[in-house]
Amino acid sequence: MMVRPFRRFLAAAAMGLALTAAGAEAKTFRFAFQGDYKSLDPYTLNESFTNGLHKAVYEGLVRRGPKLEIEPALAERWEVSEDGLRWRFYLRRGVKFHGGEDFTADDVIFSAQRVRTQGSNFLPIVPKDAKVVKVDDHTVDFLLTAPDAMLIAEWDNWPMMSKKWAEANNAVAPTPQAAETPSYAALNENGTGPFVVVSHQPGVKTVWRPNPNWWDSPRHNLTEVVFTPIGSDATRVAALLSGEVDWIDPVPLQDIQRVNASGIAEVMQGPELRTIFLGFDQNRDELRGASVKGRNPFKDARVRKAFYQAVDIAAIRDKVMRGLATPAALMISPLLFDRAGEFKRFPYDPEAAKKLLAEAGYPNGFEVVMDCPNDRYVNDERICQAVVGMLARIGVKVSLNAQPKAKYFAKAGQTGGYDTSFYLLGWTPSTLDSLNVLTQIMGCRDEKGNGGLTNYGNYCNPKVEALIGKIRAETDKKKRDDLIAEAYRVALVEDVGYIPLHQQALVWGVAKTVKLVQRADNQLILSWIRKE
Amino acid sequence: MIAFIIRRLIQSIGVLLAVALIAFTMFRFVGDPVNQMVGVETSAAEREQIRKSLGLDDPVVVQFGRYVAKAASLDFGISYQFRQPVTKLLAERMPATLELALVSSAFALAVGIAMGVYTALRRNGWLAQVFQAVSLVGVSLPTFLTGILLIYVFSVLLGWLPSFGRGDVVAVGSWWTTGLLTWTGLRALILPAITLGLFQMTLIMRLVRAEMLEVLRTDYIKFARARGLSQRAIHFGHALKNTLVPVITIAGLQLGSVIAFAIITETVFQWPGMGILFLQAVQNVDIPIMAAYLLFIAFLFVVINLVVDLLYAAVDPRLKSTVTAS
Amino acid sequence: MPFTTGEKAESPAEAASAPAPAEGAPGLVARLKDNDLVASFLASKMTMVAAVVTVVLVAAALFAPWIAPTDPFDPAKVDLLDSHLPPRWVEGGEARFLLGTDDQGRDLFSAVLYGLRVSLLIGALGVAFAAAIGITLGLVAGYVGGRVDAVIMRIADVQLTFPAILIALLVDGVVHALLKGASREDTAFGVLVLSIGLSFWVQYARTIRGSTLVEKNKDYIQAARLVGLSPVLIMMRHVLPNVVGPVLVILTINLGLAVITEATLSFLGVGLPPTQPSLGTLIRIGQQFLFSGEWWIVAFPGVTLAGLVLAVNLLGDWLRDALNPKLR
């Protein structure tokens, strides 16, 4: 795919000389990420970096700017009815898909349906029971059954797809109906956005060229963009230091100084919205693989608090994270909740922790297995290892089970039947709002994951449930924030349902010839890149 | 002779079937394929329907038969991760791996033979001793570390060679791609080929040395000396020639494991071959890719072995007689 | 990067020569008395150095708990605040930590000693396991012959298509599928020993089978059979002693390979967990600090590993040459 036929190569090589002579214009941006760009289908994987890449070719009704502010995109404007049940979107006229089809209301209706079918990784992005109705070719209504102030909060990640194109290519659903047929949309794109995909070989290389017919005026000055995944940390850093790529993510924390001293690249860092935390199984009556039989020590808030106070968060920040983390008292970034400052972490106090354990009936501690990803978050395995050491000092023997993310999620997550006793996880609320955290992480779930899908340990308190209901209905910001703060107080201070650790920093390595924007959701937006 | 060939063919097919069985068992029993294909919110009824559509309800024997039949027509199913046919993915990646394996084998042969000859002729010379020690040091470090050290020195410190990828490639024919025809492609090959070939090189060097030492003691060489042939003619015309057959045989036989070992080199250098594809498949429990890759390695091994056996049978009259006798 | 040096035995020249020592040559013990081994040993300075290095490293591994100042496997004794300290003689180093500390604050000297212990143990157990499978199957194949022989040798063929790393990845996958919920800490050791055993046995089987084929037609074996000795006894008493030499050579060289294999596997994510590090795990962790100037985290485990493998290989070479009468 990425290969030019040989004859064309020769022709291109011959032209190459001419081009370099005249072509001060050619600006190729090369970049490398630790993971693959697997599928071009924008509905199959909800992952920050991939979502960012999709934006090169696809666009949503709305988009978010450099500061994550919501802007109109394919919808020029929108209005909400008095009762909050009808959202009317006025679509931008004259927008064409890369394949030449006009963008119309039918495409919005189709996209709303496609994103809610099997195989979509974005199911809740449009409420299940919402109706999408065409008013005319350029006006669409979303009819809700309950008001939802956060309806468009995530739509930055919900791009519009062409109905005609999908129907013509058996790509109506994210997963083709017969599981044995390959997916067309995984290898081909048809968006409205600033770039078109020239070639895409998953796991190897993806190449884009600017879309000359884009409706918006481009902020970038690129003529070509080339993406390569580089999994090995050392190799990725080497590629940046030797000038082979212009951008890498992540830069391993220990290599920041070297990158900054290199003279050709520097590290761009900023706060990330993701919160890293520890969770407990509070669901089973007996923990799997633990030394305590017949009961679950994690059902006792004193044990959870003991664990909390045993964790020396300052040491983790300074030694494991090399200062590039902000210890957290809440399960949401302070950037996303104005009143986060009111909350303080329980102090690090191993003596108090031991006392709590003794009170709970475990004066000599106990043994437990901890699940941890080792390729998902910044230094995840090292954080877990450090936690194991800290817990050992209060007598708790932790057996660490650190695995690649795919295996970790397949065990600890819903598909694995939440098979974990004690785990490390990170969470960014995709709506950039606390309600998402409260429902997904702190809302009760059943065995199948209905409810708090990502609440692995099933922390469950009816008080919090009641507050979640009220928050959902509340539209007044002040009152809503009061309710949110109260929910956090119950879940994290009263119950110690989780141990929030920190917000990690975003650490990008950027060549000095490149100017770009670092969005706090860790998405690299290609259309904002300028190269000297 | 013909009976021998037929017997070897049957045995080869037996080996492939055994590997296919292992591959199939993995496909079927390590992890539920349906779970890998659908989202978390898929209902039990939908899962059941997919299970049926995949034929997972049939008796295991029927399923295995179907798997073998499909594999024979090069259909290994759809990758869970990429939603693309496994055959297509492997075919795209195969040229990269084969090219790397062949170039590194060539490097290993060239340098290994040269060093082997030298160390055999100057058995007690200090340089020979150094060669031997250095070649051993090269294989006393794990490959991944060697690779990273090479990247550090030649890409980061010196800036001479690229640290990752395959450079520019050009298409040859309908599906083969090669990096051997472009400057960037050639440069990109150097470090991975050395990393991958180092172990082979040491092996060949030691083998050549041992064989040379043995041949040099034979009466045949003593005669040659007595006949007054020049040292040069003896060493290269007779001794080396006699050692080359086993050396090249072994290099050939090792090709299969070189390709398997490319997994590590490809991972370190982000070389877009089958090895890195396989490793990612392992990490993502992408069983169709794993199974197909295993079969491919087995197939390659079987073919090489078969060819070597047949060549020997053709060349070596003794073997021919024992073969027909048994 | 094949870990199957043993493929050498497939070279027609070697295949022919491998059983050679067994043919009427005196046994190992007799040869030792002859002092040829000792003589050749003393003749090569390199071998002597290798022997010293091996003895020192093995002793260090054996007595690690008594030599090491701290127990790096006890997380309660490790302080994160001590992490990333350079060796004692480098500026910023502390007297407590001779070789500095790793990213978790473990004393690197202790970690290397314990890692060496783990690596050697896995290597030794894995190789012993391989030898046990290989010798048994080789004896049976050679002695019984016929269809049994054919089946065993075809299994050997199938096995050869899977290098150690592939086997380890498969074994690891299967073990984790079977023992749902098992922690890597509990399974890694077994997975590694099993994988090394399953991938290294073919060489032993082939060597033993060859020698058995030669021995079993000799008059004294026929006589023993007539007397009514059990086949097991005959094999143990008469066949086995004659092939000890080649097996010893393979064992030595395989030990080096096994240690390297273990290190490689830890890079691929199926090695020992960082909480119970082998040399390989220490190197995997340490290589991440190569660019940042914290060289000691990878250098000391790396040098130890290379030294061990090198020394063991040199000893294997010497054994091979010393036991091969043609080279003397």
UniProtKB/TrEMBL annotation, chain A:
Residues 69-446 form the Solute-binding protein family domain. It is found in: Periplasm. CDD domains: PBP2_NikA_DppA_OppA_like_2 (cd08498). Residues 1-26 form the signal peptide. Coiled coil: none annotated. Keywords: Signal, Transport. Belongs to the bacterial solute-binding protein 5 family. This is ABC transporter substrate-binding protein.
From TrEMBL, chain B:
The keyword Transmembrane helix applies. It is a multi-pass membrane protein. It is found in: Cell membrane. Keywords: Cell membrane, Membrane, Transmembrane, Transmembrane helix, Transport. Residues 94-312 form the ABC transmembrane type-1 domain. The chain crosses the membrane at residues 12-30, 100-121, 133-160, 180-199, 244-269, 289-312. The keyword Acyltransferase does not apply. Belongs to the binding-protein-dependent transport system permease family. This is ABC transporter permease.
TrEMBL record, chain C:
The chain crosses the membrane at residues 48-68, 118-144, 156-175, 187-204, 239-260, 295-319. Residues 1-22 are annotated as: Disordered. Keywords: Cell membrane, Membrane, Transmembrane, Transmembrane helix, Transport. It comes from the Bacteria. Residues 116-316 form the ABC transmembrane type-1 domain. Gene3D superfamilies: MetI-like. The keyword ATP-binding does not apply. It is found in: Cell membrane. InterPro entries: BP-dependent_transpt_permease (IPR050366), MetI-like (IPR000515), MetI-like_sf (IPR035906), OppC_N (IPR025966). Coiled coil: none annotated. The keyword Transport applies. Its main location: membrane. Pfam families: BPD_transp_1, OppC_N. It is a multi-pass membrane protein. Residues 12-22 have a biased composition (Low complexity). SUPFAM superfamilies: MetI-like. PANTHER family: ABC TRANSPORTER PERMEASE PROTEIN, OLIGOPEPTIDE TRANSPORT SYSTEM PERMEASE PROTEIN APPC. Belongs to the binding-protein-dependent transport system permease family. This is ABC transporter permease. It comes from Chelatococcus albus.
